[in-house]
Design goal:
The chain is of the alpha/beta class. Helix content is 41%, strand content 16%. A 7-stranded mixed sheet has the order 1-7-6-2-5-3-4, sandwiched between helices.
Length: 287
């Protein structure tokens, strides 16, 4: 399913940023851009309303919509390595590559298979400013806002993750690549946030990578349809003998190495960031 206009311009941005090593830059042309104050209002509103009855009703509706979309989008999705996940695994962070507004349904497909009732999804505050169907899902499909505000990250956001991961033992999805790069096949070097919180809260990480397979049928005039293959790479645990800082670095290195190795195995070529048209799954065009 193709979401968004101006795909060629977005792909041009991906090429520019990939080849210049700016792996966490925003590439979409129409995503909301918020001031620091606007971002603070979103996190403040979330903290104030997240336990309200109305918010919980909207969240129940949003999760139901997300689960319905998950069944539709992932009817042909394969999961490889499901046996690597222990049945008694408690609270856990999940990391994966970030390439579509709807690819979190692939991870929800996984948690459904594991019969886990809850999946929290970490999302940037700019996504909470979106409108329409996608905007509703971004706000209420059990999403948790993350911002650049140090005070929010150190106090409120950390307490939410502790509640979800340690106290309630939920699964939480956090994208280390930060920005979504549309249908981009290659794993990007991660930011450290996911690994810091795993180390700080002493919870494991399910390392995942989503392979995208072009199908013969057209989705649009510019794109073929794409099938997903979710690879469960490993369960990464913080080392109790290491500091938070040491674990943050070690977990990030391990996670990226696993994703890199998986990319090279499934696509049959070494990972580098010279752009090729085939880097964009399903795309029939050229630059």
């Amino acid at each position: 399913m193709i979401i968004g206009d101006n795909r060629k311009a977005v792909i041009e941005n991906i090429k520019t940023f990939a080849e210049s090593g700016q792996f966490h830059n925003k590439v979409e042309l129409t995503d909301p851009v918020l001031t620091a104050e606007q971002s603070k209002k979103i996190t403040a509103s979330y903290m104030e309303s997240r336990n309200d009855f109305t918010f919980k009703i909207k969240t129940a509706i949003g999760v139901l919509m997300a689960k319905t979309a998950t069944k539709i989008i992932n009817k042909n999705t394969e999961i490889v390595g499901l046996e690597k996940i222990p049945r008694d695994l408690g609270g856990v962070l999940i990391t994966s590559n970030h390439f579509s507004p709807l690819e979190n349904t692939v991870i929800r497909h996984l948690t459904n298979k594991l019969k886990r009732r809850k999946l929290g999804i970490i999302s940037q505050t700019s996504n909470f400013a979106m409108t329409g169907f996608i905007g509703f899902l971004m706000n209420y499909a059990d999403t948790i806002p993350i911002s650049q505000d140090p005070r929010y990250l150190a106090r409120d956001f950390l307490s939410i993750l502790k509640e979800r991961l340690v106290d309630k033992k939920h699964a939480v999805l956090l994208y280390p690549e930060q920005e979504m790069w549309f249908n981009y096949r290659k794993p990007r070097p991660p930011k450290s946030g996911a690994y810091f919180y795993a180390a700080k809260l002493n919870v494991p990480i399910i390392s995942c990578f989503v392979e995208m397979v072009d199908l013969n049928d057209d989705d649009t005039s510019e794109f073929k349809k794409v099938k997903y293959v979710l690879h469960i790479l490993d369960i990464l645990y913080p080392d109790p003998q290491k500091t938070v800082k040491e674990n943050t670095e070690a977990l990030g290195v391990m996670d990226y190495s696993l994703k890199k190795n998986c990319y090279e195995t499934v696509y049959g070529k070494a990972l580098d960031y010279t752009f090729e048209a085939s880097d964009i799954a399903g795309w029939k065009g050229t630059l």
